Amino acid sequence: MLWTIVVILVILWALGLATHVAGSLIHILLVIALIVAVVRLVQGRL
Q1: Which one, of 11, 25, 31, 15, lies nearest residue 39 by Cα?
Q2: b/e string for 15-41 if b means 16 or more Cβ within 10 A?
Q3: pLDDT value at residue 22
Q4: pLDDT tens, 29-43?
């Protein structure tokens, strides 16, 4: 479930960069998703 959210956020972030929509909100969400993903990787919960 978490990986699905991370993938969706990355796709939305890429679309936001391409179309200049959503401003800094999508960047904040992407950073949060990446932090959670890294924490889970470090803890070994793939």
Answers
A1: 31
A2: ebeeeeeeeeebeebbeebeeebeeee
A3: 60
A4: 777 878 888 888 888
> Is the Cβ–Cβ distance between 18 and 1 less than 8 Å?
no
Domain count for the chain: 1
| Residue 14 tokens, joined | 């890429």
Range of the domain at 9: 2-43
CB 46 within 8 A of CB 40: yes
Two tokens at 39? Answer: 């924490």
In this structure, what token pair is assigned to residue 8? 């969706």
Query: In this structure, what token pair is assigned to residue 9?
Result: 């956020």
Q: Which amino acid is at 31?
A: V
